[in-house]
Amino acid sequence: MPATAEDISPEPLINATTAGLRELNERIVAEAKKAGNVTVDLYESTFRTFADYTEKVGAASPIDLVSTITSAQANLTRELSGGYAKAARTLLK
């Protein structure tokens, strides 16, 4: 006697589909976190380089006030970008 539509349960198909979607979602989230961390690393590196360059330009100036201001600006840039990067990494965990 052939099976009827009433004899076939959709639960196994629903469960398999749900499990597959859950796995796909977990992989998407993991890859997004990786990409986010790479972006944060690049952000932090870029601003660190900018701060180093600013400090070197200021140090080359014969005017003490200019070197003092550029050094302070470089330190502020490092602190702010480091703080933002740390906060972003915390959110990406």
Coarse morphology:
rod-shaped
So how many helices?
Answer: 2
Radius of gyration: 27 Å
Strand content: under 5%
Structural class label = mainly alpha
Helical coverage, percent range: over 70%
| H-E string | HH
Average the pLDDT over all residues and give the rounded result.
Answer: 91
Quote the distance from N terminus to C terminus: 56 Å
Largest sheet descriptor: none
Which residue ranges are poorly predicted, with pLDDT under 50 across at least 5 consecutive positions?
none
Total beta strand runs? 0
Short description:
This protein is 83% helix and 0% strand.
Report what the structure shows.
It is a single chain. With 93 residues, this protein is an all-alpha fold. Helix content is 83%, strand content 0%. It has helices at 11-59, 64-91. Helix 1 runs antiparallel to helix 2. The N and C termini lie far apart (56 Å).
